[in-house]
Structure formats: structure tokens, C-alpha cells
Specification:
- There is one protein chain.
- The protein is an alpha+beta fold.
- The chain is about 20% helix and about 45% strand.
- A six-stranded mixed β-sheet has the order 1-2-3-4-6-5, with helices on one face.
- The longest helix has 15 residues, at about 50-60.
């Protein structure tokens, strides 16, 4: 599923959220979705994230998902706080998981049950 937030005033995409199955090679994970979220920096704190999460959670439940899973870069404290406010919990850390310009960054593993 893919939800898009558009600013009606200038018809600009200001955010989006996607969710896809955790795995397609087995039915053992059919109840788990992997989510990704983006909100434009200049449009944050305006309720866009809330609308995206509400829409995704509603459709996910209708499609039979029971759990949502994702990773957040450890240096993205704003994104992590946003997910935690919406009921996600930290379940682990993938150390040195991402690498940017020779610098490693941990990924925080989070999940939420619907």
C-alpha cells in the first residue's frame, strides 16, 4: 500500500508512507508488514504524519496485517520519536547497519502490533 500527502495549495507532494509484506517467499509472515515514512522537513508538525499513519493502520487491519515492522536510523531521532508516539516499540539494534561516506550508522529495529 502507498499513501501520499499532497499540499492542495501548490499541489506539492509533502509526504508519503508505504507498507509492503515482510516476506513473499513463505506465508509464515503474511501478518507482518514493513512500513516506511517520509514527511517533507518544511511541512512537519502539521499533522501529515498522523494522517498517513491513521490511513495505513486502517488499511493494514482490513488487509489482515497484525504487526508492522521497520528500521529507523539511530541518528534520526525525530523519526524514531514519531514512531514511538504511535505505539511502536524498540526491539533491537542492527549495529553498523548503514554506511554513509565511510561512517557507519546503527539501525533501530521497531515494531507495533495492530
Amino acid at each position: 500500500m502507498f499513501h501520499v500527502a499532497v499540499c492542495r495549495a501548490d499541489e506539492k507532494v509533502v509526504g508519503f508512507q508505504s507498507m509492503e509484506p515482510f516476506a513473499t517467499f513463505t506465508h509464515a509472515f503474511d501478518h507482518v508488514g514493513v512500513i516506511g515514512t517520509y514527511v517533507d522537513l518544511s511541512y512537519r508538525q502539521q499533522g501529515i504524519g498522523t494522517c498517513l499513519f491513521d490511513a495505513t493502520f486502517e488499511v493494514a487491519r482490513r488487509k489482515g496485517y497484525e504487526k508492522i515492522f521497520t528500521y529507523v536510523r539511530a541518528d534520526n531521532v525525530t523519526a524514531l520519536a514519531s514512531y514511538l508516539r504511535r505505539g511502536f516499540q524498540i526491539v533491537g539494534t542492527a549495529q553498523r547497519h548503514a554506511k554513509f561516506n565511510g561512517t557507519y550508522v546503527d539501525e533501530i529495529i521497531i515494531e507495533r502490533f495492530l
